[in-house]
Amino acid sequence: MPGFSTLPDLALRTLGGSVVAASDESFAEKESLIRPGRPGFQAETFGNKGQVYDGWETRRRRSPGHDWALVRLGVPGVIRGVVIDTAWFKGNYPPHACVEAASVEGHPSPADLEAAAWTEIVPRAELTGDSEHHFAVTDERRFTHVRLNIFPDGGVARLRVHGEARPDLSVYDGLGLDLAALANGALVTACSNEFYSAPNNAIAPGLARHQAEGWETARRRGDGNDWLVIRLAGRGVIRLAEIDTTNLLFNAPGAVSLTGLDGDREVELLPRTRLQPDTPHRFRLAHPEPVTHVRVDIYPDGGLARVRLHGHLTTP
């Protein structure tokens, strides 16, 4: 699997993504394109429009042209790769597709987006049915929207837009923010173990609904402890740490510690501190030194639902 697939899906609905318009959605709704999780399917489940699909499906085109869907990224960023997934579409998938991207600030309407300048980031490529298609992207520009074009019609289950978040943090000037939020540009850059679930889940938006929506490691049988490193949204001073073990009833860590990193300098933000299962913990921190990364150590293993590190960006 390509390396870009470990990066956040910037289009994901749970990150705030939206399918703002589509040329057609006669058979299956466009919103399914950015739904979290693998597409589901149950054979011989028919509704008024035919077989029910967990994806986006257009009618059979009888006129010239092609179908398309416009997606607003939940978090603007640099796109490193795109996945077009035709899962379960076996006789009704589009034979070809391409992807374009645009950067449009503010809150554009579909008409505004139609008039925008679009850049092709995935050239027209052949698709097959019931398959994931991975396309690396080399454009270094920051984009806010993508357009999936399918030729001429058919069904696509999911569109994944993996990349590095580049949000506009100027709206927080003079205010505090969660420096560890994925939506603000933070990213988990290293992790000791991700056997059960991905470490970037720990900095995802919202609350974890179940333990799979957090970060959970395998059971540790040797010495040491598990850990992850968060690259903050920017260099900043952290005042409040939230360590949430919600949903982790019998697999929460026994303790946690936080270490700030700034180049070669290490700053103890939170000494080793006991945790309770299924509990949101909040710790005031009294270390004014700015840092760029934070190492979260859990002892000895287990999982965290969310990590929030509230503070202020420092002046560059």
UniProtKB/TrEMBL annotation:
Pathway in which this enzyme or protein is active: Nitrogen metabolism; (S)-allantoin degradation; (S)-ureidoglycolate from allantoate (aminidohydrolase route): step 1/1
Entry keywords, A to Z: Hydrolase, Purine metabolism
Domain called Allantoicase: residue spans: 16-165, 185-313
Assigned EC number: 3.5.3.4
Keyword Hydrolase: yes
One GO process term, biological-process aspect: purine nucleobase metabolic process
Pfam family membership, one: Allantoicase
Claim: Hydrolase is one of the keywords in the record: yes
GO terms for MF: allantoicase activity
Catalytic activity: allantoate + H2O = (S)-ureidoglycolate + urea
Transmembrane segments: none
Assigned protein family: Belongs to the allantoicase family.
HAMAP family in the cross-refs: Allantoicase (MF_00813)
PANTHER family listed in its UniProt record: ALLANTOICASE, INACTIVE ALLANTOICASE-RELATED
Protein name as catalogued: Probable allantoicase
Organism of origin: Nonomuraea jabiensis
Lineage, highest ranks first: Bacteria, Bacillati, Actinomycetota, Actinomycetes, Streptosporangiales
Encoding gene, per UniProt annotation: alc
